[in-house]
Each structure stands twice: as structure tokens, then as C-alpha cells.
Amino acid sequence: MKLLVTGGAGYVGGVVAAQLLDAGHEVVVLDDLSTGHADAVPEGARLVRGTLREAAFGVLDGAGFDAVLHFAARSLVGESVEKPGLYWDKNLGESLALLDAMRRAGVNRIVFSSTAATYGEPESTPILETDPTRPTNPYGASKLAIDTALAEYARLHGLGGVSLRYFNVAGALLEGGRVQGERHTVETHLIPNVLKVALGEREKVMVFGEDYPTPDGTCVRDYIHVVDLGVAHQLALEACEPGVHQIFNLGNGNGFSVREVIEVCREVTGHAIPAEPHPRRSGDPAVLVASSDKIRSALGWKPERDLRAMVADAWAFAQRAR
Ligand code: UFG
């Protein structure tokens, strides 16, 4: 297939673009490089630099694309609280421009990177796709609005859309000569920050909150390996059905606390990794764990890589990327 990958210069988009190339697809990446890196675009893909508003139609029109994988987004919860307008504009506004460009160009399949943040603070766990969506920040709200737009475009314009609601993505792609992983300029995620301590780039890891109603008092999250996530995208692409919008959670279905994650990082790196308690980070739900039963039964997806593999691959990448 000929595929447009928006945000293919970012962590997840770059990894999935590489997997799609290795599966034999033709890939064009559209990215404004506002948070991504040109050298994260995998070899074999063509990079078009531009925003979705500026460039989507020019790239798609008459070019014979079969589908779009839409990763491009602003994705920092804290930043979204400080600058809600930016998130509505970049996430929702540019996604609508993309959807209209797809319509005009006659491209009617899309796989979209949605998020666990669309659910907000869950009432029960594990989270099902049918659970209430009450996002607690503009990031989650803007992603939920895009899910809603996809449902409307499916119903009214015959779009075939799949939203994948990612939980906590980790790990790296280190297969087939590829070396791709997480390289955020502003790093807020737990695993890369813990590994920075093992690399000697930071003295201690900050543990945000030890008084949550969880077994060890720290937040529990559901971690998924980026390579398993990429496999889900390939299945989702095949499952796009005209006139239908489907939503699938994407997690491993297991919860690990912040303390457990740090412990696995100690075991993998052999480094003591000192940890220091800090106050809660605002907006962090205590427990976020996905039910992935729907994608397992509907698409036959199954995660193959556990937390230890995620940390080992992230560690191998972090050491090479220094
Ligand atoms: N944490 C620390 N120290 C750190 C970094 C994180 O203790 O240095 C804690 C956080 O407080 C949280 C857990 O580790 O309890 C995981 O934090 P991450 O930032 O790695 O991930 P989040 O669960 O906050 O974020 C993920 C996605 C977001 C999405 C969100 C939904 O990365 O895109 O889930 O709530 F919005």
C-alpha cells in the first residue's frame, strides 16, 4: 500500500513507519518537525516537512495513497493545561484539515493515535472501550474530539477509521538494522527519565507521589512495547472498513507501579538508580490499566514483549543514542 504517515519524525510514528516499510509498504512522512527529528524518519521513507494544514492536500491529492496513519500531535499533558488553545488548534484543528484533505483526495482509510487520556480518571479497572470518556486535560479532550470527528466522517462521508487508544508506550525498535527509540526534547515519561539516571545524566529519579491508593503507594500504569504497538497498527490498517469507526484500547492489560518500573530498570541496567519522593504530579490518575480483550478478539492482536523487554530495548537505545 501507499501510506501517508503524519508525525513520522516522532518516536511512535517513526517506529511504525519503519515497520510498515519493512512489511513492504511505500511510506511518505508528513511532519512539521516541531517536536520530531528529521533523522528519526526511517530510511526508505520520503519526508515532506510541513503542517497538516499547509501540506496535507498537496501531498495527498492525485498521489494514489491508500491510507493515512495519523500520529502527528502535541502530547504533553502539562503543556496542554498551560496552553489549551495550542492543543485544540494543533490536535483537533490540524486533524480536521487532514480529514478534509483526505476527502478531497478520495483517501478513505485512517488509523489514528488516540490515548488512554480520553477516559480521564477511570471508575473501574481494567478500562473498557465502552467506559465513560471524561478527559481531565486539554490533551485528552482534543484527542477525544478527533475520535468523535472520525465517527462522524465515517457515518456521513463513508470514512473507514480505527482509533487506537494507547496506554503507556515504551521500548525501542532494534530489528532489521533499525535503531529507533524515544528522544523527546522535553522528557516527561518515566522509563526514559529513569534510564537517564543510569546513564549518569541525572542524579536521581523523582517519584511523583507515594500516597496513592495502590499496593506500594505509587501510580500504576499499563506499559506496551512500541513494536507490539506497531503490529497493532498493521492489523488496524487491514481492519479499516468504509463507513465504520472502530475504537480499540492498546495496552498489555497488566499494571506496574512506578516503584516496580524503577526496580526493573535497576535489574536491567545494573545501576543503583537512586529514587527520591516528590509531591504528586497534577492530573495523574492512580491506576490506568487497559482491557485489551477487544483488539485481541476482533483483530487477533497479542502483545509479545513484557516490561523487562521494553526496559532492555529502551536501555540499548539510550546507550546508542548518547
Ligand atoms: N513519573 C515519575 N517520575 C518521572 C516521570 C513519571 O514518578 O520522572 C510517574 C508519573 O507521575 C506517572 C507514571 O510515572 O505516575 C507514568 O508517567 P508517564 O509520564 O511515563 O506516563 P503517563 O501515565 O503520565 O502518560 C501516559 C501517556 C500520555 C497520556 C497519559 C494518559 O504518555 O500521553 O498516559 O493519562 F496522556
UniProtKB/TrEMBL annotation:
Pfam families: Epimerase
CDD domains according to UniProt: UDP_G4E_1_SDR_e
Cofactor(s) listed: NAD(+)
Enzyme Commission number: 5.1.3.2
Catalysed reaction, written as an equation: UDP-alpha-D-glucose = UDP-alpha-D-galactose
Pathway where it operates: Carbohydrate metabolism; galactose metabolism
Sorted UniProt keywords: Carbohydrate metabolism, Isomerase, NAD
KW NAD (keyword) present: yes
Occurrences of domain NAD-dependent epimerase/dehydratase (ranges): 4-251
NCBIfam families: galE
Quaternary structure (record): Homodimer.
Family affiliation: Belongs to the NAD(P)-dependent epimerase/dehydratase family.
UniProt name for this protein: UDP-glucose 4-epimerase
Organism field: Actinomadura miaoliensis
Organism lineage string: Bacteria, Bacillati, Actinomycetota, Actinomycetes, Streptosporangiales
Gene: galE_1
